[in-house]
Amino acid sequence: MSSRKRRTFSDEFKKDAVQLLEEKGYSLKEASDSLGVSQNSLCNWRKKFGKDAPSNDLEKENRALRKEVQRLHEEREILKKALGYFAAEDQK
Question: 46 and 16 in one domain?
Answer without folding.
Answer: yes
